[in-house]
Amino acid sequence: TGRDGIESVDFYLAYHFFRSASIMQGIAARAKGGTAAGEGAVEIGKMVYPLSKLGLEYAEKLGA
Questions:
Q1: Are 51 and 21 in contact (CB under 8 A)?
Q2: DSSP string, 23-52
Q3: Which pTM value belongs to this model?
Q4: Could you count the other beta carbons within 10 Å of the beta carbon of residue 28?
Q5: Phi-psi bin for 2: left (phi > 0), alpha (psi -120 to 50), beta?
Q6: Distance CA 9, CA 20 (A)
Q7: Is the separation of the CB atoms in 58 and 21 below 8 Å?
Q8: What percentage of the chain reaches a pLDDT higher than 70?
Q9: Residues contacting 14, CB < 8 A, separation 6+
């Protein structure tokens, strides 16, 4: 695209990781409740903590 970079990339990464983690938490909750659509829902739930941790690391770079 000809860009030299993305301004505030840490913000976008923090947002992405927290948003993805929250979506995966919802999938895990449905798996726990027995209403998950897919077989891999429990495994997806295991990714919530690592993604949240990454989101926090990027948010801390921003001063959070």
A1: yes
A2: HHHHHHHHHHHT--SSTTHHHHHTTHHHHH
A3: 0.81
A4: 19
A5: left
A6: 16
A7: no
A8: 100
A9: 55, 56, 58, 59, 61, 62, 64
For position 37, what pLDDT does the model report? 81
User: How long a stretch of residues is the chain?
Assistant: 64
Q: Residue 47 above 90 pLDDT? A: yes
The owner of tokens 């030299």 is 4
Which amino acid does the sequence have at 7? Answer: E
Structure tokens at 29: 């909750």
Comparing CA positions, the residue from 23, 17, 24, 19 lying closest to residue 60 is 17
- Which residue type sits at 53? K
